Amino acid sequence: MDFEQILYTKDGGVATITLNRPERMNAFTDVMIREWASALEDARLDRGVRAVIVTGNGRGFCAGADLRGGSGVAETARAETPPAAADRRNWLRDGVHAVPRAVQLLDKPYIAAVNGAAVGAGMDMASMADIRIASEQAKFAMSYVKVGLVPGDGGCYFLPRIVGIAKALELIWTGDFMDAQEALRAGYVSNVVPGDELMASAMEFARRLGEGPAVAMQLAKRLVYRGLEASWHEAFEEAGQAMAIAMTTEDAREGPRAFAESRPPKFVGR
After folding, report:
1. DSSP state string for 213-250
2. How many CA atoms within 13 Å lie on the side-chain side of 20?
3. Is domain 214-260 in CATH 2.40.50, yes or no?
4. CATH code of domain 6-210
5. pLDDT tens sequence across 121-173
6. Which end of the chain, N or C, is more open, meaning fewer C-beta atoms within 10 Å of its C-beta?
7. Are 134 and 191 in contact (CB under 8 A)?
8. What is the pTM of this model?
9. Are the beta carbons of 135 and 180 closer than 8 angstroms?
């Protein structure tokens, strides 16, 4: 697959999406959004892909929408006749929100390797990942408030679920930067590593997950996210259904055999 503003590679069961506009701190355009969503869809459908990493090229992870052009934001601001509210909503829904929609369908582990600044919608994009690993140079800011806006790419949905309501509102209301160590203390990132070790650490972790029982892991991911919204009855009903499916897999037979034989299991993902 050929892309213009991202790099997309597959290696050892891990797909890596690299945002590739380093001269603009990987601020996204409409083109990047389409390519990003397309890569996620490809990774979802490829049975050989067991985990997905997203990262940025250069000094930044993602600086949000490109306000200089190409993202629709600058064009809207310069328009002689401002678009109607419905048109603005449709631009978000049909444009930027293509990435979170693709993420929502991705049952496989999705890891953000945050190499630098993740700002505004760029932080929202990092918040969509299941797990975030940060370099020591990473920093995060919900900068919407600085330009009189609200988080438009899921920040108000994802962030409270990761760091809690009070911390989420502090970050959203102030727009202050949170460095990597503060993000670790807040539980926003799982690990902080030196910059030159980031991708190796993320790849090692992704491959470790990729060696696991894929069906069970994907079912567990769905149970976790659905459990955030479900009632007790619904959560336990879905858990029972998921367990019934998992018990039919080859991996569910391999696991006990390997345990009995005192050897590492060799899961095949089905």
Report:
1. -HHHHHHHHHHHHHHTTS-HHHHHHHHHHHHHHHTTSH
2. 14
3. no
4. 3.90.226.10
5. 999 999 999 999 999 999 999 999 998 988 988 899 999 999 999 999 999 99
6. N
7. yes
8. 0.90
9. yes
